[in-house]
Amino acid sequence: MLGWLRDYLRKPEGRAGQHPHYLEIMVARTGQPAHTFRINLDTLKKSGRALGMLFLAWFGGTFYVAYSHISNMEAIASASQQAEKIAQLESSNQRLAEEKQSMGQYVFNLRARVEELAVRVHGMVNRTQTEFPVEANRPQGGVAIPLSSANAAEMMRKEFSLFDENIDNLLPELETTLAREFSRPVGSPIAGDIDISSRYGVRNNPFGSGHEFHNGIDFIVDRGTPVLATGPGRIEAAGYDGPNGNRVAINHGFGYRSVYAHLSKVSVKPGETVERGQAVGLSGNTGRSSGPHLHYTLYYRGQTINPARYVKAN
Ligand SMILES: [Zn+2]
User: Fold this and answer.
1) How many whole angstroms from 35 Cα to the centroid of ligand 1?
2) What are the helix and strand counts (H, E) for the chain?
3) Span 232-249, mean pLDDT?
4) CA of 314 to the centre of ligand 1 (A)
5) Cα-to-centroid distance, 191 and ligand 1 (Å)
6) 143 domain residue, yes or no
């Protein structure tokens, strides 16, 4: 740069070099010799041009720096906007994650309740043993897929199809349960107040010494009292049967049977269907009986059960 400037300012060649333009300034002072200043106009012009070029270079550089600065400011502003957008997106993501978590918990609780309901219904249908017992805090494991935004919809769909399946399984169970509950022999075979002379279980032999197992309940009633079916069913047996005397046996379905013994009169026939509360005969003192009473026996799955709970259930 300096070398170029030196060459540029060197004395011109050719015609301009042979006939340079000069400006001479003479300064005369009293009592002093005159001073003459000589300025080469060509060199002055060249210097002016060089200064102009330097000024242009400075101006260009300054403009460039200023422009760069403004560009940077714009980039910073843009970056700031981007950061704001990212923050908004992150906040939105956080909200979605929280909603997803809450939805997951909701579905989990809902499933637990449906499963609990299923267990209860199973329990009602088969009181002795639930088919699929579900207990809390049992060992768990296996392949698990964490709930994420990407698979949430698919998981929900699967989860709801499980509900569908559970409800599909529950409905027939519930219908069976309702039918069974409706058919269960409950209540008293005698209208009005009841007076029990002998409960279910071991008792003294009313006809002699020792003990015997009494497989039902004896109701003290006047001879000729209407004897009522304790549940809907089909008459399985009706007529004389040795120690039971005249007796009626009803099959209620679902493993339940009821027997009414020592009757004076039987008013139904085998195969007939009866409703709850319908009279099947009149009480009496037939068969192995020490006095007028109604002997009432309940069977569940071939075994006698204590009728007390069922009589009181009504
Ligand atoms: Zn009895």
Assistant:
1) 162
2) 5, 15
3) 96
4) 21
5) 18
6) no
* Distance of CA 65 from the midpoint of ligand 1 (Å): 116
Whether 208 and 304 map to the same domain: the answer is: yes
Residue 253 Cα, ligand 1 centroid: separation in angstroms? 23
Average pLDDT over residues 272-287: 96
Indicate whether 73 and 115 sit together in one domain.
Answer: no
Q: What is the pLDDT of residue 302?
A: 94
Are 200 and 161 members of one domain?
A: no
Q: Looking at the predicted structure, is the pLDDT value of residue 230 above 90?
A: yes
| Residues at Cβ < 5 Å from ligand 1 ion | 218, 295
Domain holding 231, by residue range, is 196-312
Cα(173) to centroid(ligand 1), Å: 36
Coil/strand/helix, residue 295: strand
Let me know whether 252 and 280 are in one domain. yes
86-111: buried (b, 16+ CB within 10 Å) or exposed (e) per residue?
Answer: eeeeeeeeeeeeeeeeeebeebeeee
Nearest to 287 by CA among 229, 246, 230: 246
- pLDDT tens for each residue of 121-144: 666 655 533 334 444 556 666 666
Are the C-beta atoms of residues 247 and 262 closer than 8 Å to each other? yes
Higher per-residue confidence, 101 vs 215: 215
Tally of domains within the chain:
3
Q: What is the 261 CA–ligand 1 centroid distance (Å)?
A: 8
Instruction: Output the pTM of the full model.
Output: 0.52
- Cα of 196 vs centre of ligand 1, distance in Å, is 10
